[in-house]
Give the backbone structure.
Amino acid sequence: MHKVSLLFGVHMHQPVDNFGESVDEAIEKCYKPFFETMVDYPQFKFSLHCSGWLLEQIVTKHPDIYANLQKLTNSDSIEWISAGYYEPVLSSIPSNDRVNQIKKLNRYIKKNFKTSPSGLWLTERVWESSIIPDLKKADINFTIIDDYHFLSSGFKRDDMNGYFQTEESGEKLALFPICEALRYALPFFSVEKAIEVIEKQNRGENSAAIIFDDAEKFGLWPKTHEWVYEKGWLKNFAEAVIKNENIETIHFKEFKDNNKSKGIAYLNNTSYFEMGEWSLKEKQTIELEKLKKHVGLDYFEDIGIAFIKGGIWKNFFIKYKESNYLHKRMLYMSRLQDKMSKKSLELLYALQTNDVFWHGVFGGLYLPNLRDNAYSYLLGLEKEFSGKKTLYSIDDFDMDGYDELKVLTNSLSLMFSQKNGAQMVEFGSLKKLFNWQNTLQRRKEAYHENILNPKNEQSTKKNDDEIATIHNMDEKIDEKLKENLIFDWHLKYSFIDHISNEPFSLQSFKHANFRELGDFANQPFELDKKSKTFSRSGGIYLDKKHDTTITKRYSFKENQIKQDFTCESDFKDTAYYGVEFNLHFAHPHKVTFNDNFIDNGLNLKSIKTLDIVDDFTKQKITLSFDTPLDMSAYILGTISQSEKGYDMVNQQISFILSTTFKQSLEISINIEVSDV
């Protein structure tokens, strides 16, 4: 009987500049005990990818793990696998940056472990064939992706026990399909059942059982530390594999060099199936799940998998405009890299880290700290280009078909959107490298259906020799979450114009259920490039359309923004005008508005000055008005799904300044940033 080659790989990653306590937890629960265990079994060959920033942390701060990695490398146990240094989705960054990021990680591995990778871990398994020529420029000869990539492109499941060859413009690359059955078995099944799954991949000569998955499954995921280390799963698994006469561990490169490919393959642009689901909008995700259930699991896995699928990874830029904005700002800065210092180039590469651009089971875009980190890199780049003179640029920076006004003073980085109501979509401090406009719209997500209409479904775990994965853990629904499921109909930035026939109350503003009469909050404005003035000829809609024009003229100083606002309408009754601001703070509960905490909501009447003190940046944002305005404010939270269930993430403080008017209104609003 032929042996089956076990190609076993683990992928280690933490978001760049993640919370120290989060990295420490991963070290103690997962990375440290994993290599402490594996160093006792040098004959167990496996492959390892570690993203560059995390590898730096290990090399410089954790000498015990570093020493074990060197031992395992020197004994030929570890085969190092490369990727982009800061773990970008390669298809989402420019060609030159792909090559440079991969080569940077290659050099770091060569420096510390005296070996050169020839294989690549594909971040989030996001595959586009256009990356192949760039991989070859970085001396990469193979990559590892899911068997789903092949199955969704029409290949047979029985052929997923070897590697395939593909090409782009004549540049060849080997593709290894990760076995889904093994991804769900290791380490969640008992050792005996896991071995059975490996042996099932033995379908004749030169068969391979291929597994390459998150190292965090081995200790960091819920309940896995006890299972993998305290109960000895990893130790017992390594010993069982070594003793098994039907299994041999082997490196990917060694297998490729000693075996022929299973043929040529051309694959769809895709990632794993769940990623395709997450990238769809809420209703589409729900309908996709219904379709899968309708055709049945057997049909789906046998035939339908090639036809029933979600979107591509770049759909996240459509689903989340905040993600698209950040991504396009990155692309814009990348085009300027010839003028950057070496330090700034590192900021650009860090800005390309994938985590902040998408959202699935884990927080991703929904985590304010990840967005804060990304904006700190962006503002660090902008700081290098700032000077005494205020710089103005008008261009379609976010590639939505409309121009934006970009303003760079020597202390502020600002952006105003023509398409989205002439809103201020970036309000960044170059001194603190903090973007107060780092806000997020409250959107309905597919998983909110589980809160609104909970289903009493039990975990698929059935036996004491298994543990549940994050995909099938029992979920506990907090009924209070329903009260906070509020969804916005427009982006939540600043200088948003609302017109109503009733006063704006704290409750109607918070729940976004006041009657909107105008068409200015989320509609395009004209932009006069010379005067930097935004205007829209729209309407107030009640009994009929009442022609209404809003003009917003912005002017700037070093640390000041001034908006001169005018509204002219043929609506003759009394109307209520409100200008909405949404500002992001690291600690919204500690921020004061005219010496008041927001707590459960705040109302201030007839004010001409609003002092906002940010405890985190030690900055004061002062808004002053030439006419008294009423204010209502609350702390806006978004309900996000995580590996632990559902979390209320406090994103920002939302407030509205309002007054009455008849036919015409003029307001000047001045914003000044100063040290506390």
DSSP finds 21 helices and 26 strands in the chain. The two ends are 76 Å apart (CA to CA).
